[in-house]
Fold this protein.
Amino acid sequence: MPEAYKVWADHLGSTTDVHTIGQLLDRYALEVVPTKAVTTQSGNHIFIKTLRAVFGNMPLLPFKPQLVYQYYEKRKAKVSAHREIEVLSHAYTKAIEWGLIERHPFKGEVRLPGEKPRTRYVEDWEIIECLALESRQKKGSVLAIQASMRIKLLTGMARSDLLRLTMSDLMDDGIHIERHKTAESTGKRTIYTWTDELRAAVNLAKEARPALSKFLFCNRDGQGYFNEKTGECHGWDSMWQRFIERVLKETKVVEKFNEHDLRAKCASDAESLEHARALLSHANTATTRRIYRRKAEIVNPLR
Protein backbone atom coordinates (compact mmCIF):
# COMPACT_ATOMS: atom_id res chain seq x y z
CA MET A 1 0.00 0.00 0.00
CA PRO A 2 1.43 3.43 -0.87
CA GLU A 3 2.74 5.45 2.08
CA ALA A 4 0.27 8.23 1.31
CA TYR A 5 -2.67 6.01 2.26
CA LYS A 6 -1.03 4.98 5.54
CA VAL A 7 -0.56 8.65 6.42
CA TRP A 8 -4.14 9.35 5.42
CA ALA A 9 -5.42 6.57 7.68
CA ASP A 10 -3.35 7.75 10.64
CA HIS A 11 -4.54 11.31 10.14
CA LEU A 12 -8.25 10.48 9.95
CA GLY A 13 -8.32 7.76 12.55
CA SER A 14 -11.86 6.99 11.36
CA THR A 15 -13.00 6.23 7.81
CA THR A 16 -16.69 6.90 8.39
CA ASP A 17 -16.58 10.64 7.65
CA VAL A 18 -16.75 10.56 3.86
CA HIS A 19 -18.35 13.41 1.92
CA THR A 20 -16.41 13.73 -1.34
CA ILE A 21 -15.49 11.31 -4.12
CA GLY A 22 -11.84 11.83 -3.22
CA GLN A 23 -12.49 10.69 0.35
CA LEU A 24 -14.44 7.69 -0.95
CA LEU A 25 -11.57 6.71 -3.24
CA ASP A 26 -9.14 7.09 -0.34
CA ARG A 27 -11.19 4.72 1.82
CA TYR A 28 -11.51 2.33 -1.12
CA ALA A 29 -7.71 2.38 -1.54
CA LEU A 30 -7.25 1.75 2.16
CA GLU A 31 -9.81 -1.01 2.74
CA VAL A 32 -10.62 -2.65 -0.59
CA VAL A 33 -7.55 -2.47 -2.83
CA PRO A 34 -5.29 -4.39 -0.38
CA THR A 35 -7.65 -7.40 -0.65
CA LYS A 36 -6.98 -7.70 -4.38
CA ALA A 37 -4.14 -9.49 -6.17
CA VAL A 38 -0.80 -7.68 -6.00
CA THR A 39 -0.71 -6.85 -9.71
CA THR A 40 -4.31 -5.60 -9.54
CA GLN A 41 -3.44 -3.38 -6.57
CA SER A 42 -0.76 -1.47 -8.49
CA GLY A 43 -3.15 -0.83 -11.37
CA ASN A 44 -5.95 0.26 -9.02
CA HIS A 45 -3.74 2.84 -7.32
CA ILE A 46 -2.91 4.35 -10.72
CA PHE A 47 -6.60 4.44 -11.67
CA ILE A 48 -7.52 6.04 -8.32
CA LYS A 49 -4.89 8.76 -8.78
CA THR A 50 -6.35 9.60 -12.21
CA LEU A 51 -9.92 9.60 -10.89
CA ARG A 52 -9.05 11.84 -7.93
CA ALA A 53 -7.54 14.45 -10.25
CA VAL A 54 -10.91 14.81 -11.99
CA PHE A 55 -13.57 13.92 -9.40
CA GLY A 56 -11.70 14.29 -6.09
CA ASN A 57 -13.35 17.49 -4.83
CA MET A 58 -16.85 16.62 -6.00
CA PRO A 59 -19.47 15.60 -3.40
CA LEU A 60 -20.53 11.94 -3.39
CA LEU A 61 -24.04 12.97 -4.43
CA PRO A 62 -25.54 14.17 -6.63
CA PHE A 63 -23.54 12.43 -9.36
CA LYS A 64 -25.08 12.37 -12.83
CA PRO A 65 -24.42 9.45 -15.24
CA GLN A 66 -23.60 12.02 -17.92
CA LEU A 67 -20.34 12.72 -16.06
CA VAL A 68 -19.19 9.18 -16.77
CA TYR A 69 -19.86 9.58 -20.49
CA GLN A 70 -18.05 12.93 -20.55
CA TYR A 71 -15.06 11.43 -18.72
CA TYR A 72 -14.90 8.53 -21.15
CA GLU A 73 -15.13 10.74 -24.22
CA LYS A 74 -12.30 13.03 -23.07
CA ARG A 75 -9.94 10.16 -22.18
CA LYS A 76 -7.77 9.16 -25.15
CA ALA A 77 -6.77 5.87 -23.53
CA LYS A 78 -10.15 4.14 -23.79
CA VAL A 79 -9.06 0.84 -22.23
CA SER A 80 -7.69 2.68 -19.18
CA ALA A 81 -10.88 4.74 -19.04
CA HIS A 82 -12.91 1.52 -18.83
CA ARG A 83 -10.78 0.28 -15.93
CA GLU A 84 -10.99 3.62 -14.11
CA ILE A 85 -14.77 3.74 -14.40
CA GLU A 86 -14.96 0.15 -13.14
CA VAL A 87 -13.02 1.19 -10.05
CA LEU A 88 -15.23 4.26 -9.51
CA SER A 89 -18.36 2.12 -9.89
CA HIS A 90 -17.09 -0.46 -7.42
CA ALA A 91 -16.21 2.33 -4.96
CA TYR A 92 -19.82 3.54 -5.12
CA THR A 93 -21.02 -0.03 -4.57
CA LYS A 94 -18.86 -0.18 -1.43
CA ALA A 95 -20.27 3.20 -0.38
CA ILE A 96 -23.72 1.58 -0.25
CA GLU A 97 -22.31 -1.29 1.81
CA TRP A 98 -20.66 1.19 4.20
CA GLY A 99 -23.92 3.09 4.64
CA LEU A 100 -22.67 6.28 3.02
CA ILE A 101 -25.33 6.39 0.29
CA GLU A 102 -28.57 4.52 -0.43
CA ARG A 103 -28.30 3.85 -4.16
CA HIS A 104 -25.67 3.69 -6.88
CA PRO A 105 -25.77 6.89 -8.97
CA PHE A 106 -24.90 5.32 -12.35
CA LYS A 107 -24.85 1.53 -12.19
CA GLY A 108 -27.17 0.14 -14.86
CA GLU A 109 -27.57 3.58 -16.42
CA VAL A 110 -24.29 3.81 -18.31
CA ARG A 111 -23.50 1.75 -21.41
CA LEU A 112 -19.98 2.42 -22.64
CA PRO A 113 -18.67 0.96 -25.90
CA GLY A 114 -17.53 -2.55 -25.02
CA GLU A 115 -13.99 -3.81 -25.33
CA LYS A 116 -13.70 -6.41 -28.03
CA PRO A 117 -12.76 -9.78 -26.50
CA ARG A 118 -9.67 -11.53 -27.83
CA THR A 119 -10.61 -14.12 -30.48
CA ARG A 120 -7.37 -16.07 -31.01
CA TYR A 121 -8.18 -19.79 -31.00
CA VAL A 122 -5.18 -22.11 -30.93
CA GLU A 123 -5.80 -25.00 -33.32
CA ASP A 124 -5.03 -28.63 -32.45
CA TRP A 125 -2.33 -28.84 -35.11
CA GLU A 126 -0.59 -25.82 -33.56
CA ILE A 127 -0.52 -27.57 -30.20
CA ILE A 128 0.97 -30.67 -31.83
CA GLU A 129 3.70 -28.53 -33.40
CA CYS A 130 4.52 -26.94 -30.03
CA LEU A 131 4.66 -30.25 -28.19
CA ALA A 132 6.90 -31.71 -30.89
CA LEU A 133 9.50 -28.96 -30.48
CA GLU A 134 12.73 -30.66 -29.47
CA SER A 135 14.33 -29.77 -26.16
CA ARG A 136 18.05 -29.08 -26.25
CA GLN A 137 18.40 -30.21 -22.63
CA LYS A 138 17.23 -33.22 -20.65
CA LYS A 139 15.51 -30.93 -18.17
CA GLY A 140 14.47 -27.31 -18.09
CA SER A 141 12.53 -24.68 -19.95
CA VAL A 142 11.15 -26.35 -23.11
CA LEU A 143 10.05 -29.51 -21.31
CA ALA A 144 8.58 -27.48 -18.44
CA ILE A 145 6.62 -25.23 -20.82
CA GLN A 146 5.33 -28.24 -22.75
CA ALA A 147 4.23 -29.96 -19.54
CA SER A 148 2.47 -26.78 -18.41
CA MET A 149 0.68 -26.59 -21.76
CA ARG A 150 -0.58 -30.15 -21.35
CA ILE A 151 -1.91 -29.46 -17.86
CA LYS A 152 -3.49 -26.14 -18.88
CA LEU A 153 -5.20 -27.69 -21.91
CA LEU A 154 -6.68 -30.42 -19.71
CA THR A 155 -7.74 -28.22 -16.78
CA GLY A 156 -7.91 -24.61 -17.99
CA MET A 157 -5.97 -23.65 -14.86
CA ALA A 158 -4.89 -19.99 -14.61
CA ARG A 159 -1.15 -19.36 -14.81
CA SER A 160 -0.91 -17.98 -11.27
CA ASP A 161 -2.59 -21.11 -9.89
CA LEU A 162 -0.55 -23.45 -12.06
CA LEU A 163 2.78 -21.93 -11.00
CA ARG A 164 1.76 -22.07 -7.34
CA LEU A 165 1.13 -25.82 -7.44
CA THR A 166 3.07 -27.80 -4.86
CA MET A 167 3.38 -31.52 -4.21
CA SER A 168 0.85 -31.20 -1.37
CA ASP A 169 -1.78 -30.06 -3.89
CA LEU A 170 -1.50 -33.41 -5.69
CA MET A 171 -3.91 -35.53 -3.68
CA ASP A 172 -5.18 -39.08 -4.16
CA ASP A 173 -8.42 -37.85 -5.73
CA GLY A 174 -6.89 -35.16 -7.95
CA ILE A 175 -5.26 -31.73 -8.06
CA HIS A 176 -6.62 -29.41 -5.38
CA ILE A 177 -6.55 -25.65 -5.94
CA GLU A 178 -8.15 -22.52 -4.55
CA ARG A 179 -8.38 -19.84 -7.22
CA HIS A 180 -5.93 -17.26 -5.92
CA LYS A 181 -7.67 -14.46 -7.79
CA THR A 182 -10.95 -15.05 -5.95
CA ALA A 183 -9.59 -16.40 -2.66
CA GLU A 184 -10.68 -13.27 -0.78
CA SER A 185 -14.13 -13.13 -2.39
CA THR A 186 -15.69 -16.47 -3.31
CA GLY A 187 -12.99 -18.68 -1.77
CA LYS A 188 -13.88 -21.20 -4.45
CA ARG A 189 -11.97 -24.49 -4.40
CA THR A 190 -11.64 -26.86 -7.34
CA ILE A 191 -10.54 -30.49 -7.53
CA TYR A 192 -9.40 -31.68 -10.96
CA THR A 193 -9.90 -35.43 -10.76
CA TRP A 194 -7.18 -37.67 -12.11
CA THR A 195 -7.24 -39.08 -15.61
CA ASP A 196 -4.45 -41.04 -17.25
CA GLU A 197 -3.65 -38.01 -19.41
CA LEU A 198 -3.54 -35.60 -16.48
CA ARG A 199 -1.31 -37.92 -14.44
CA ALA A 200 1.04 -38.26 -17.39
CA ALA A 201 1.21 -34.46 -17.81
CA VAL A 202 2.00 -33.95 -14.12
CA ASN A 203 4.69 -36.64 -14.28
CA LEU A 204 6.26 -34.85 -17.24
CA ALA A 205 6.30 -31.63 -15.20
CA LYS A 206 8.02 -33.42 -12.32
CA GLU A 207 10.63 -34.90 -14.66
CA ALA A 208 11.32 -31.50 -16.24
CA ARG A 209 12.24 -29.87 -12.92
CA PRO A 210 15.94 -28.93 -12.79
CA ALA A 211 16.00 -29.41 -8.99
CA LEU A 212 14.11 -31.19 -6.23
CA SER A 213 11.42 -28.87 -4.97
CA LYS A 214 8.04 -28.68 -3.29
CA PHE A 215 6.85 -26.81 -6.40
CA LEU A 216 5.65 -28.61 -9.51
CA PHE A 217 7.37 -25.94 -11.61
CA CYS A 218 10.62 -24.55 -10.24
CA ASN A 219 13.90 -22.91 -11.25
CA ARG A 220 17.41 -24.30 -10.80
CA ASP A 221 17.41 -23.25 -7.15
CA GLY A 222 14.21 -25.19 -6.51
CA GLN A 223 12.22 -21.99 -6.01
CA GLY A 224 8.80 -21.38 -7.50
CA TYR A 225 8.47 -18.88 -10.34
CA PHE A 226 5.65 -16.82 -8.83
CA ASN A 227 6.74 -13.85 -6.74
CA GLU A 228 4.07 -13.39 -4.07
CA LYS A 229 5.25 -9.86 -3.21
CA THR A 230 5.07 -8.46 -6.74
CA GLY A 231 2.52 -10.83 -8.30
CA GLU A 232 4.93 -11.36 -11.20
CA CYS A 233 6.90 -14.30 -12.58
CA HIS A 234 9.63 -12.81 -14.76
CA GLY A 235 11.65 -16.02 -15.02
CA TRP A 236 8.67 -17.96 -16.36
CA ASP A 237 7.72 -15.11 -18.70
CA SER A 238 11.22 -15.18 -20.20
CA MET A 239 11.03 -18.96 -20.68
CA TRP A 240 7.66 -18.65 -22.40
CA GLN A 241 8.93 -15.87 -24.67
CA ARG A 242 11.97 -17.92 -25.74
CA PHE A 243 9.74 -20.95 -26.31
CA ILE A 244 7.31 -19.06 -28.57
CA GLU A 245 10.19 -17.52 -30.51
CA ARG A 246 11.49 -21.02 -31.26
CA VAL A 247 7.99 -22.22 -32.17
CA LEU A 248 7.55 -19.42 -34.71
CA LYS A 249 11.01 -20.02 -36.15
CA GLU A 250 11.17 -23.82 -36.19
CA THR A 251 7.58 -25.00 -36.73
CA LYS A 252 4.68 -24.30 -39.08
CA VAL A 253 2.98 -22.04 -36.50
CA VAL A 254 2.96 -18.45 -37.80
CA GLU A 255 0.68 -16.60 -35.37
CA LYS A 256 1.83 -15.92 -31.83
CA PHE A 257 -0.39 -16.94 -28.91
CA ASN A 258 -0.17 -16.54 -25.16
CA GLU A 259 -0.87 -18.70 -22.12
CA HIS A 260 -4.28 -17.09 -21.69
CA ASP A 261 -5.19 -18.32 -25.17
CA LEU A 262 -4.52 -21.90 -23.99
CA ARG A 263 -6.95 -21.38 -21.12
CA ALA A 264 -9.47 -20.14 -23.67
CA LYS A 265 -8.83 -23.20 -25.86
CA CYS A 266 -9.64 -25.47 -22.93
CA ALA A 267 -12.91 -23.62 -22.40
CA SER A 268 -13.71 -23.63 -26.11
CA ASP A 269 -13.07 -27.36 -26.44
CA ALA A 270 -15.20 -28.29 -23.41
CA GLU A 271 -18.39 -30.16 -24.29
CA SER A 272 -20.66 -27.60 -22.66
CA LEU A 273 -20.59 -24.05 -21.36
CA GLU A 274 -21.18 -25.31 -17.82
CA HIS A 275 -18.23 -27.72 -18.06
CA ALA A 276 -16.07 -24.85 -19.35
CA ARG A 277 -17.18 -22.66 -16.42
CA ALA A 278 -16.30 -25.39 -13.92
CA LEU A 279 -12.89 -26.02 -15.49
CA LEU A 280 -11.99 -22.33 -15.31
CA SER A 281 -13.42 -22.02 -11.76
CA HIS A 282 -15.67 -19.13 -12.77
CA ALA A 283 -18.52 -18.14 -10.46
CA ASN A 284 -20.94 -17.95 -13.40
CA THR A 285 -20.98 -18.55 -17.14
CA ALA A 286 -21.08 -14.90 -18.29
CA THR A 287 -17.31 -14.37 -18.40
CA THR A 288 -16.73 -17.90 -19.71
CA ARG A 289 -19.10 -17.34 -22.62
CA ARG A 290 -17.96 -13.82 -23.55
CA ILE A 291 -14.18 -14.16 -23.26
CA TYR A 292 -13.18 -17.82 -23.26
CA ARG A 293 -15.55 -19.70 -25.59
CA ARG A 294 -13.91 -18.78 -28.91
CA LYS A 295 -15.10 -21.44 -31.32
CA ALA A 296 -17.76 -20.51 -33.83
CA GLU A 297 -21.23 -21.68 -32.80
CA ILE A 298 -22.47 -24.54 -34.98
CA VAL A 299 -26.17 -24.14 -35.85
CA ASN A 300 -28.27 -26.58 -37.84
CA PRO A 301 -30.57 -24.99 -40.44
CA LEU A 302 -34.32 -25.12 -39.89
CA ARG A 303 -34.76 -27.41 -42.91
